[in-house]
Design the sequence.
């Protein structure tokens, strides 16, 4: 039987799944990714590192001890639009200090890859359809309250 190559999304979800399952690994994952993106001379490697940081922030928060240091790091070093996205995700994580059960959805993968915010179309009572901005930890209830 022939081995099929792993998709990029599957390979990138390994550290996310490890961090979701094991709270003790989370800060180590963030520190390793920060170390890999700090003054990285390879643009592709740097982009992948920031993409993974963004996906990790979509999946689980850093510890309260690491939080302020990671926020400072992304504020000072965020590359190619990831600065704003990672800051927003960290500020949201500071409010909602919970981890997810599953890795990011396809919508999150694509928005993190492009370093843009997410939005879903909502139909309002006047039948007008408008995009409503959402975050990784947005629930159905909070989405309905935002409209």
Sequence:
């Amino acid at each position: 039987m022939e081995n099929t190559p792993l998709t990029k999304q599957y390979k990138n979800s390994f550290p996310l799944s490890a961090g979701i399952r094991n709270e003790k690994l989370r800060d180590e994952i963030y520190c390793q990714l920060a170390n890999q993106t700090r003054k990285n001379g390879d643009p592709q490697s740097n982009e992948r590192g920031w993409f993974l940081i963004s996906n990790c922030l979509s999946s689980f928060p850093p510890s309260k001890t690491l939080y302020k240091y990671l926020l400072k790091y992304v504020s000072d070093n965020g590359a190619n639009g990831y600065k704003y996205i990672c800051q927003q995700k960290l500020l949201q994580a500071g409010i909602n200090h919970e981890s997810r059960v599953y890795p990011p959805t396809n919508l999150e993968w694509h928005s993190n890859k492009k370093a843009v915010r997410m939005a879903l179309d909502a139909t309002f009572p006047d039948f007008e359809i408008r995009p409503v901005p959402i975050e990784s930890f947005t629930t159905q209830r909070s989405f309905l309250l935002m409209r």
